[in-house]
Write a structure and sequence with these properties.
This protein has 10 helices and 11 strands. It is an alpha/beta fold and 297 residues long. Strands 3, 4, 5, 6, 9, 10 and 11 form a 7-stranded mixed β-sheet that branches. The two termini are 54 Å apart. Pfam families: HTH_1 (PF00126), LysR_substrate (PF03466).
Length: 297
Amino acid sequence: MIDIYKLNAFVAVVEESNISRAAVRLNMKQPPLTRIIKSLEQDLDTILLKRLPRGVEMTEAGKALYQEAQSILAHAQAIPKRVHNIAQGLEGQLNIGFTNSVSLHSFLPMLLRNFRERFPAVSIQLEEDGSSALIDSIINGKNDIVFLRKPAPIGFELTNLHVLDEPLVVALPNNHPLANDQSAIKLTDLESYDFVLYRRLAGQDLFDNIMASCYQAGFSPRIVQEAPRLTSSLNLIAAGIGLSIVPKAIEDFWNKQIVYRPFSPDTPCIAPIFAVYKADQNHIRLQHVLQLLQHLK
């Protein structure tokens, strides 16, 4: 292993082309510097410098060492700053997970944008998955924070932060009998109609929320078609196969052949969003995210 101290001395001698001037640059005497260079040559078992009447000149091996030494010393000089930046949350990696329906809400891109503007050197790794897999990813440390439609179960020592409540709306084909009805829609108004929902495995939290709301209203929705994703269910709705209950944010993604109607204020349907994470005061990048979340709320 090559001593960084010796490499620094060698680089100084090369750049000054003179041991005496290099000794002045290093704030040391010439004899100790000469011994350092000889020791380095012994370590590498090769001659690095040719002694000239008025200075020194690199050998071919010395040139190779000089190029490597420059890279090594530059990297070594950068280590303290990098370590400090990571300790302050200014560098490193942040792993964020979310369900498909959460990704459609504007708060998420706004959060990511604000974070990147404040901490541009932090790498952000994003993962979209089902809620169960995302909770597992927090438990095993794969993700730092995930965003779900319901809080994590009790017993996993995870922290749940309520981010927001998003209204659910009815998505109807534009030729549906309820599409042009200007009266307030209640859940019970939907009982006799066909439903299109995306598969529970693709969005368990939102699916369960919709089903529970219908059960509380006194009926079980007649699901005639399931879609692999929330956004793909919009194609089926536009085709007239059925209606659906969707987060309000989805209105920004598709309005062709689809009419969105709010629920009556006395029977609102809400889909909350929660941030789930392990409480770790030493995870400074996570603390930065939580601070930004508080400002967005």
